[in-house]
Amino acid sequence: xxxxxxxxxxxxxxxxxxxxxxxxxxxxxxxxxxxxxxxxxxxxxxxxxxxxxxxxxxxxxxxxxxxxxxxxxxxxxxxxxxxxxxxxxxxxxxxxxxxxxxxxxxxxxxxxxxxxxxxxxxxxxxxxxxxxxxxxxxxxxxxxxxxxxxxxxxxxxxxxxxxxxxxxxxxxxxxxxxxxxxxxxxxxxxxxxxxxxxxxxxxxxxxxxxxxxxxxxxxxxxxxxxxxxxxxxxxxxxxxxxxxxxxxxxxxxxxxxxxxxxxxxxxxxxxxxxxxxxxxxxxxxxxxxxxxxxxxxxxxxxxxxxxxxxxxxxxxxxxxxxxxxxxxxxxxxxxxxxxxxxxxxxxxxxxxxxxxxxxxxxxxxxxxxxxxxxxxxxxxxxxxxxxxxxxxxxxxxxxxxxxxxxxxxxxxxxxxxxxxxxxxxxxxxxxxxxxxxxxxxxxxxxxxxxxxxxxxxxxxxxxxxxxxxxxxxxxxxxxxxxxxxxxxxxxxxxxxxxxxxxxxxxxxxxxxxxxxxxxxxxxxxxxxxxxxxxxxxxxxxxxxxxxxxxxxxxxxxxxxxxxxxxxxxxxxxxxxxxxxxxxxxxxxxxxxxxxxxxxxxxxxxxxxxxxxxxxxxxxxxxxxxxxxxxxxxxxxxxxxxx
Length: 642
Hints:
Helix content is 66%, strand content 7%. It is built from 24 helices and seven strands. By secondary structure, the chain is of the alpha/beta class. Strands 5-4-3-6-7 form a five-stranded parallel beta sheet, with helices on both faces. The protein is elongated, with a radius of gyration of 32 Å.
């Protein structure tokens, strides 16, 4: 584990790529929403951007307090559970899990839209390419966090450098060289979809644009969830990375908005809104328009910017692939999710959590046709639910510590942290209200419904695990030591007198039962008589009993026979030996063992009954012996592999 810990230079691209990449679509969403009111509404974009930047700074300052106070990696879930109780903690967990899934879906969809602006073929098949990218990213993460972190560092830094070069060179040309850069849509007009938007409608529109721009804040919580992956001192390195993330994200976010306003770029939902657009014109993403304007004499620059933007958006999903499995593992440890999510693989990655996230994100991409505008309506509800509850928890955390702390220096530090978290609470709470009000009918209700369903499922899972634990503890207290059975009654199921049956009889005899008998069910008189004659003529000494079945059913007569034995002798254990074929092809499995599977499924529910499968390998199974054996998760660490 020590070799997988990340220095700050690698942790930044691993955990902050989501927040950094959101500058590729968050500014665009602001302009997209404002386009509903026509061209005049674009003048409000810089002010909305400043409001979003202010919220981002406050949230990052607040989460630096979280990182220092709770460095164990539980993030918002641990903060809220500890300070507000398990129900509130489970609410945050539900919101975060849904948000991680949507992070992958939105990032991949936006990546395909950016590539599609330069390569039309990808735009025509962006759902397929988005699904392929998700599977590729999952495969990289299954290789382990250290390997994926190193692989993702170069593209993330390339994106940051490329964006700073584009923004810096563009603003230098405009304000220093006096070159009036114009985007390809600068000469177009934007038609209002609903005529003049005034009064309350305009306020609502601005609020909705602000809530869409707040997508830039997604990913901030990933660092607080990933503190254990940092090198020591963990909390200090995580806080420094968070501060660095804030500075980079705010500067890129505001730089794109200013450059878009100066170049006159237009972003609309449909080409019909653009007045003066030529026939067959396809709207391009904001980043692509800006790169085309800034590097108008250098087409390679356009492709480089489009390439690194698409790449960072693909890799932004890596934040979720690092955060979701860790949170899932913590929830599984607390018995809110299946225990399989708690296990690490040989590469020290939570393999089951990675696979679950990948397939859930693919479902959203396919369902919403990889449309960013549709997905983003679902996106940030969960983020601000967790932000708000986390800040409430942190305020209570500092208040609780201040009751017992006597050192004046420590008290001043705690009071300062409490003020920061209180400001964060007011800010994120207000944004949450705006987000829910402006986006509920646009699709946010789907995310809220998903959170509710996930919350209920986790409650049921926890109830099941708690019930099993109580039941085992109660029975242990009542029964004390396990009482040995008085007798072992062995029953061998027979369908024909062949080698599998003889092996089952031999194995049953080797267990030295008190009673050994063979039984067959009469579903055909001729076959039953033939089997009895064959049995009597053989050298088998075990008695064969034929059970009548007037309705030609196999399972029920066997169950009734076994129940009769256990009823007559309650302390007798009945061991049922079932011969089974071992085959080498899936379609052969369909042709064999179906009655045995049904019977085993029913016998497992009977008390004092043991079921033993006696395998007989057919020739087709030989091919599987030649296949190199695959290691199970954790084999290397347990010493099972040479």
